[in-house]
Amino acid sequence: MQTILLVDGYNVVGAWPRLARLRDRHSLEAARNELVEQLAGYASFRGYRAVLVFDAQLVTSPLVRASETPHLEVCFTDYEQTADSFIEQYSYQLLRENRRRRVMVATSDRAQQVLVLAQGADWLSSEQLLKEVEAARRQLREDLRNRKARPSNKLADRLDPTVRDKLARWRFGE
């Protein structure tokens, strides 16, 4: 079953301590970029298709959508459209098109939570998403550590050393 994760970008930036510090000390753009990187890795690891949505209320440009990776798309909403309304409409559309797909919405906005749950989507708070992202990062590190500790998958690595030496001598005509 395909899982699509819709994320309210600025809600998450405000809820994750590291992103809020980045926003306050450096810039909103720095916090957005960090969130993009975090979600790209998370979505790839979990096999989700993630859509990260940012408000563009005060911008006069139309909807902008860009695929950052095969697993992550970043959207800036239309002029005077909130991320909440975009996510609500898009989750409804996704569920209507295919009831077999799983739609998850990440936001701590209570009104949006109630609405998407009523539509049939799953919901997780921004804080829960942070825990999920951190757990995926730990699991990835553990998987990589285990892969390095495992012997390679080569036949030569599994052979008895004396057999390996004899085969090497044959190969070189000794």
Could you characterize what this model shows?
By secondary structure, the protein is an alpha/beta fold. It has one domain: Rossmann fold (3-Layer(aba) Sandwich). 57% of the residues lie in helices and 18% in strands. It is built from eight helices and six strands; from the N terminus they run βαααβββαβαβααα. It has helices spanning 9-15, 17-25, 28-46, 83-97, 110-119, 126-149, 155-158, 161-171, and strands at residues 3-8, 49-54, 64-69, 72-76, 102-106, 122-124. A six-stranded mixed beta sheet has the order 3-4-2-1-5-6. α2 (17-25) runs antiparallel to α3 (28-46) and α4 packs parallel to α5 (110-119). The model has no long low-confidence stretch (mean pLDDT 86).
Task: Give descriptors for this structure.
6-stranded mixed beta sheet; Glr2993 protein; alpha/beta; 174 residues; Rossmann fold; YacP-like; 6 strands; 8 helices
Give the uncertain stretches in residue-range form: none
User: Beta-sheet strand percentage?
Assistant: 15-25%
What is the C-level CATH assignment? Alpha Beta
Q: How many structural domains in the coordinates?
A: 1
Total number of β-strand segments? 6
CATH architecture assignment: 3-Layer(aba) Sandwich
Largest sheet: spatial strand order: 3-4-2-1-5-6
**Net shape:** elongated
Protein name: Glr2993 protein
InterPro entries: YacP-like
